[in-house]
Amino acid sequence: QSAQYGSCSLRKMGAMEALELLDQLVDESDPDVDFPNSYHAYQTAEGIRKAHPDKDWFHLVGLLHDLGKVLALFGEPQ
Fold first, then answer.
1. Rounded to an integer, what distance in angstroms lies between the CA atom of residue 26 and that of residue 8?
2. Inter-axis angle of helices 37-51 and 15-22, nearest 10
3. How far is 61 from 46, CA to CA, in rounded Å?
4. Is residue 69 included in any domain, yes or no?
5. Beta carbons of 56 and 68 less than 8 angstroms apart
6. What residues form the membrane-spanning segments (predicted)?
7. 43 is in which domain, residue-wise?
8. Residues annotated as binding site?
9. How far apart (Å, rounded) are the C-alpha atoms in residues 78 and 63?
10. Residue 70 near residue 18, CB atoms below 8 Å
11. pTM of the entire structure?
């Protein structure tokens, strides 16, 4: 995986674009969820912010935690 994706040459995108791309994915772990995957990311970040208001790095981790799932849109298994 590192050899194939480590150079980041498949596609370059910002974090917000990757979050938007997640909305095109039906997550196999939650196939019946009615809201977009990006909503889950924001919901997670907000929950962490409320629980840990002093840990801004943790809020960011909550927002980004599922970004690797975009690889499923490029043919990788979930």
1. 24
2. 120
3. 11
4. yes
5. no
6. none
7. 13-74
8. 40, 65-66
9. 19
10. yes
11. 0.81
| Cα separation, 36 vs 40, whole angstroms | 7
Interval 2-41: pLDDT, tens: 888 788 777 889 999 999 999 999 878 776 778 888 999 9
Residue type, 22: L
* Residue 35, both tokens: 């809201």
- Residue 51 has a pLDDT of 98
Residue 25 in 3-state DSSP? coil
Q: Which parts are annotated binding residues for Fe cation?
A: 40, 65-66
- Residue 7 maps to a domain: no
pLDDT in tens, 40-72: 999 999 999 999 999 999 999 999 999 989 989
Residue 41 domain-assigned (yes or no)? yes
Number of domains comprising the chain: 1
